[in-house]
């Protein structure tokens, strides 16, 4: 059963975040840009789709991989990719705090004929630690606000929510990842809503994807106002990821921390040959709250690398799997 008070709190917080982003875009419009919906996308489309590579940092850093010269995405493509990720994260957190998913108005595509995907799994949690419950409610509100913002900017190009699997049953995406990462045995299940620890591990998996995905996606962007806005979302996602990582580390629970490290290793095994992902244990057993390099720079993932993790595969050319059993919507859709 859903909790109306909880849902109201999440939606109220999301509305406040939506208003803050609207104020930002109104202030940006004084530079002469037409802000809002399809008019902003028209401005985005006028930019050069063959984006310049990210400037090369010092040799000791972990740079964002350079976008391939054979792949050309525009701003709308990146926004749609981000919206798919936000659909996943929002449903995960909303289910945990309220037992309900997104409002139907936030899941539709631009056309009435666009099919809205089904969300499999999810249920309301009873948090043992009230602080973790409050964190979850705030993060749920932020994801809803991100969805509202991205949908507004996409305008007539907005994509519908795809099929999403956040199930912890034997056939669920969370169980599949937990088995592959070595959190549970091959015949065991992993229910992310069963305990605070499980919830934190599931959040660790999803939240660490956000900052790296947004940083990688920014390399394809052309519109300066949208770049600034998405950098702001990246910052929010980084706060979320840092909070989850800090909360896990602060427990001092060696098993929980070890499982988070296994998740990091699992992500690293899927997204390429470089060892960029970082667990919670740094040099000499010190904490590692940010997955960064010697320059304090967090790495980025290209869109196809993000999909490797979300589809739970190391293979190229894959179009569905894992948390998106039927694939994602938009131009960027293949590992």
Task: Write out key terms for the chains shown.
335 residues; mainly alpha; two-stranded parallel sheet; 10 helices; 2 strands; 1% strand; globular
State the helix count. 10
Instruction: Say how many strands there are.
Output: 2
Q: Walk across the major sheet and give the strand order.
A: 1-2
Poorly predicted runs? 21-61
Instruction: Please give the largest β-sheet.
Output: 2 strands, parallel
Shape by Cα distribution: globular
The N- and C-terminal alpha carbons lie at a distance of: 37 Å
Spell the H/E element sequence: HHHEHEHHHHHH
The domain tally reads 1
Percent helix, as a range, is 40-55%
What is the gyration radius calculated from CA atoms? 19 Å
Mean pLDDT: 85
Helix/strand/pairing class, anyone? mainly alpha
Strand content: under 5%
